């Protein structure tokens, strides 16, 4: 009997366990930490063996195959032992792909904007009446969806960690938005390793598939020049016209795929800011490749609501606007957020640093930021980076204190922007917890 051992009892691990069990595998879930009650309940109800707070090495190393959750790095001792023994390691998206039947996949990756683009693409598909689900890194297990409620189309947000352990996974439409330095701690601090990881999204594609990518991204274009690709390229650009794909000229977005031509004004986009114009183009092209009519694309792009924790408007308090961009866990995300600011900004920064280079923000901080409020355990690096640029920098150690300090510093007509550029694990459970505590504190003002 095929013995599937799953490392990690979170959303993707438990989803994979449910699918493996349904397909007749002998499944064992092992989590070095505590498994959340809701996930434990699902495992118990489905008679799936599990352990928490430890890894029993013998139980793990007798696997036919191991599925490891994306959060577990290669340098983990147990993973090293699995590799030495030659046990195949797969990711959850590989398992889901194995059992998806004749369903089709739009897979979206990139360092920034992938959650927004995934949600918008899904919204277009729903608006067009497709039988579809939004899955993957956005917080819904792809494997669980395949097991419990299979759909004809899956719109999947895919991280580089999920791509690292694919074998046959092949999306019908792949989207690569951008590549900036992120998660380098997981890639031996070699940017090249991270770039190769992102490009794995097209490694199994054929000439029946599409590859949508940003032609204005230098890193993508440099790497693409080294590859022979076996898929249909559809670039998008805001700098020049493309023969096939998408571009923005003046205030018009133009999409050209086969005979289909779509044009619409960028002023009609629900998502504002230059970075979101890229996201909207990518989603529009993806929708066009699968035959969604232009009227439906226009309708969906106009009435889309942005995601929670991603440039989310929270409230206007005595003329001060509060924006929650807690999902900005790297410098580039914060760069995009600042780029779309058109009012004086009090910026809340800080958290667990992932090897950040804050110098990338200097010009935008000079132009837009009147004060910085640090929200982290260790803020030395942020203070050193901006002390000569920003007249006021304050340290706080909770969302409530950060919000109160920011409100005092802001004047009517200003924006308070939470866009931390860091992971959240020093003070919060995750970026959602950070965003929620920020919003709760704003509501108390």
Automatic annotation (TrEMBL):
Entry's localization field: Cytoplasm
GO molecular function annotations of the record: ATP binding; UDP-N-acetylmuramoylalanine-D-glutamate ligase activity
Main EC class the enzyme belongs to: ligase
Mur ligase central domain location: 108-286
Pathway(s) per entry: Cell wall biogenesis; peptidoglycan biosynthesis
Entry-linked InterPro entries: Mur-like_cat_sf, Mur_ligase_C, Mur_ligase_C_dom_sf, Mur_ligase_cen, MurD
Predominant location: cytoplasm
Chain positions recorded as ATP binding sites: 110-116
An annotated GO BP: cell wall organization
Keywords: ATP-binding, Cell cycle, Cell division, Cell shape, Cell wall biogenesis/degradation, Cytoplasm, Ligase, Nucleotide-binding, Peptidoglycan synthesis
Any one Gene Ontology cellular component term annotated for this protein: cytoplasm
Record EC number: 6.3.2.9
Domain Mur ligase C-terminal: 309-422
Reaction(s) catalysed (UniProt annotation): UDP-N-acetyl-alpha-D-muramoyl-L-alanine + D-glutamate + ATP = UDP-N-acetyl-alpha-D-muramoyl-L-alanyl-D-glutamate + ADP + phosphate + H(+)
Physiological role: Cell wall formation. Catalyzes the addition of glutamate to the nucleotide precursor UDP-N-acetylmuramoyl-L-alanine (UMA).
Family: Belongs to the MurCDEF family.
Protein name in the entry: UDP-N-acetylmuramoylalanine--D-glutamate ligase
Originating species: Hydrobacter penzbergensis
Encoding gene, per UniProt annotation: murD
